[in-house]
What we know:
Elements: H1 2-11, H2 16-19, E1 22-27, H3 32-37, E2 43-47, H4 52-63, E3 68-72, H5 77-90, E4 96-100, E5 122-127, E6 137-138, E7 148-151, H6 154-169, E8 180-181, E9 185-189, H7 190-195, E10 208-210, H8 214-217, H9 219-230
Parallel strand pairs: 1-2, 2-8, 3-5, 4-5, 6-7, 9-10
Antiparallel strand pairs: 7-9
Amino acid sequence: TYDEAIYSLLDTEHELTHSTPIVFTGVRYLNYELLGKHNHKNVTGTTNHPDFVKCYRLAQQLLGKIDEIQIIGEESYAGKSAIEDAKKQLKKIPNAVFRENSSNIEVNAKDDVIDSTKKDSLYIVIKNIDKLTAPFLMVSNEGFETIGGYITRGYDNGYAAGTIASHILTGTSVSSIPIQNSKQKPVFDWVQLKRWNIPLEKLPADSEVLNMPLTVRYKELFIFIIVFSCI
């Protein structure tokens, strides 16, 4: 992944990692400790920091009342960072109750106690799953087979990295270019929208829908062509 790639590169301590400009993109959780430890002044780029609360609000907009959120984690620095970040963000939601449902993800779960006396609680489950058996929304660009979510598209990541590189090649010092968080856009998969019976009218106004049939995307044009042909 993007995160592990930059971690591995910097951790090699190869002399080029100190002397050659490095521009990263698509990183969710940058290891600032690693950057500081090796004093990398030649590294900059963009991050795609997930917004879990925004994704939760989107799920409400698309699916209605949400009783339970399942957070899929992985045993990596980025995965564990995402779990801790999600817990921190989602604690802001009223009646949020956390519970751990994974034996192989190490997290600080002191607050993961179910209070059965709470009414209208939102249960947030941290777990690993092999198959998607429920509506699934993304907080980062990790591929599809999901409804979608707020993500930074691959093109936008590449464009941002290219822009930074062009500045460096024209004389701007790497250390003067701050690490910035990329803007995210609501992107959805037409197939999954149909699977979960989510109408286009429920999507945010600036949404991009992938895999939409041409007859749907250009419906008015097709109607015009048919009517014109008949005339």
